Amino acid sequence: MTNGILNGPGAGLLLSILRNGQARTRAELVQLTGLSRSTVSQRIDALLIRRLILPAEDAAPSGGRPATAFLFNRRANVALAADLGVTHARLAVTDLGGEILADRNADLSIDRGPESTLGWVLDTFRELLAVSGHTLHDVCGAGIGLPGPVDHESGQAINPPVMPGWDRFPVRDWMSARIGVPVLVDNDVNIMALGEHWAMRPGVDHLMFVKVGTGIGCGIIAGGQLHRGDRGAAGDIGHIRVPTMDQMQCRCGNIGCLEAVAGGGALAARLRDLGLETADTRDVVRLVKEGNTKAVHLVRQSGREIGGVLASVVSFFNPAAVVIGGDLAEAGDHLLAGVREMVYGRSLPLATQRLSIRASELGDRAGVIGAAVTVIEHFLAPEVVDQIIAV
């Protein structure tokens, strides 16, 4: 590749402009970037060779020959995505627009350990690629969400309370060595937040995604970007202490944690004490859908406890939307009603003036779409595209 391609704004920037619709033709790119027409043409040719864009003869100026418009080719590559929970998993193959091409839900015991679990993930990825008509050669990367704290930079789970044998296991490096593409690892709530933000774009740049399942966690989108905090611990609201519940023991070793009071596991245990057969969160949801008054009461109270904690967080962060997801969210309006009651009643009026508290739009697809988004945004970052073009 000539030095002209590498000087000034590169092909990656032009691709970003084409992706977001700011320009579609060479002339528009010249006007927007200040690059010469010949330089723009060189970069466009490089993107065409890599099939990251395709021509579309539908942009005719007034009079004269139609100008060639260029469209982002979302089918140029595929991304692999895995959302791993404690007892279940969802895996998918998506295109570069985040559309699911093939996916699978399966029961999973995360306590099988990392090598057994990740070996199954690899096998399933290969099967899904075959179903979607692709091979590993088409893959631009893999995104994995884990149900515990993750050091995003190293791709390792750090002291995960529900993942025995996973502490500091090199998930990223182990997977990347076997599939030969970049692997990005994050905790499950963060990737769900990314998935919801992707689905809601454009327009919502400040978002909290609250996952309510066996445990409780929160993913934060601030200024359109995922906020992890200094060490990746941002959003761990499940272990905020609920002052009135000092007698409730949490699996983290503390007492009175929100998770121990309002999480699906805690509700299932309380319903068992009342003589009902509830092994896990899904059983709680089943009882609510059947109209069991005890389950309905507990789920609504769970919403109030969660809302009590969120009320302070909303006043502090001032999001545009709070999205409730996770297994317990499938109980419907009962959980949401409790959350809304407390947040709208206790947060600062200005913080709730335009606040929307809603159920997840993506449901159980939020995690895999978010995992795919991490890969897509990494792969299509201007500096990465420039490196690909230069090879």
TrEMBL record:
GO terms for molecular function: kinase activity. It comes from the Bacteria. Keywords: Kinase, Transferase. Belongs to the ROK (NagC/XylR) family. This is Sugar kinase of the NBD/HSP70 family, may contain an N-terminal HTH domain. It comes from Microbispora rosea.
